[in-house]
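User:
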Amino acid sequence: MVAASHTSQVALFKRMYPKSVVNQMLKKSIGLSDCKKNTKFGGEGRHINIQTSGTGGGSADFTVALNNQNPTTQKRFFIQHKTEYQIASVTGQAIAQSLDDAMAVARVLKVEMDGALRKFHLQLSGRFFGNAGGARGQISATSAVATVTITLANRFDHVHFEVGDWVQTAPDNGTGVAPLGVNGGGAQLQIVSKDPILGTLTANAAWNTIAGTLANHFIFRAGDYSKAMSGLAGWVPAIAPVPGENFMGMDRSVGDVARQAGIRYNGLGAAKEDTFLNATAEAAALGSSLSRGYVHPLDFNDLVKELGSKRVVEAKSKDTGFGFKGIEVYTSTGILEIIADVFQPRGSAKLVEPDDITLHTAGDCPNPLNYGGAQSTQVPLNSDGLQFRLGAYGEFGYEMNNIPVHVQF
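Assistant: Predicted structure:
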């Protein structure tokens, strides 16, 4: 545990910054803002029932209809609580030296608490687009793991990493039926630098200091491997489910795959508007009506170039009314609003109906883990200072009333 101290937070004091402290924060994820929220997710878990077929017993011949009766087909996904934490501490001396605004630009305690809250939302935003494996990036095939700096296979995955993060590595992404586990018995490295343009991460030691780490291996925040909430990449996977999978207690390769795991459409490099039109038509052919498409900002930029800025509109999130820019694409079932979200991987899109998606949590998200204390602070044992803890117990649920689409450009 490392607490913010009067020395590590010296940049907050007026002798360093006489006028203001700039807190640059990523915009809240629009996808996370869109989905519904249920804070009464109690008990062991809950079932999400998806009807994949109607009743049998139909025929132009009464006797045949009578003999061929069968009930509707239901798939029952069982979602259980996953956990998400953010913990930080501040020493008593740092608090005392910053309480008087004449002495400090900002109260250290508030800055650290705001930072913890920001980081929590950052992690949850990534969860909305991620899967239960928890991987945040992958080491590129050409990276030299005997050095302190590696290159990400997808440089835009840098959004999932910040300086100071502790990470682990693994040979797989943590989603398999029998995950292989993390390398080096759970050994960790700390990110000390990153370059978003080059897509590089520099650690406090060579990457192969974690025994077994190789090029193409996956990178996780420490403790996340195979324990993450399952967002869109889990419910609407880029690759169709394979026999033997266990997703929320179900093998989605058996039965109606589209109604259980969405559909996949590859645009094969065609114009993005054409790709969206074709993808929504595929969904419409299955009776699905989708109102929202999430893309990476650079893919959004490509679409603006295709359609012109006149197609850019003012839009609002479905759940919170948060405002942002969108692009309207007119489809056979209505208007599809395309939204840029930095957490949606570049080169693909997710087309969904946000009303079908719910973040289920037991209590508020995040929830101050004080249970009787004041605000979200606790006095750490055997130390001079305060500790604050944020947490959530929940999971994303997708009811699939409208069949979603994973789009590859």
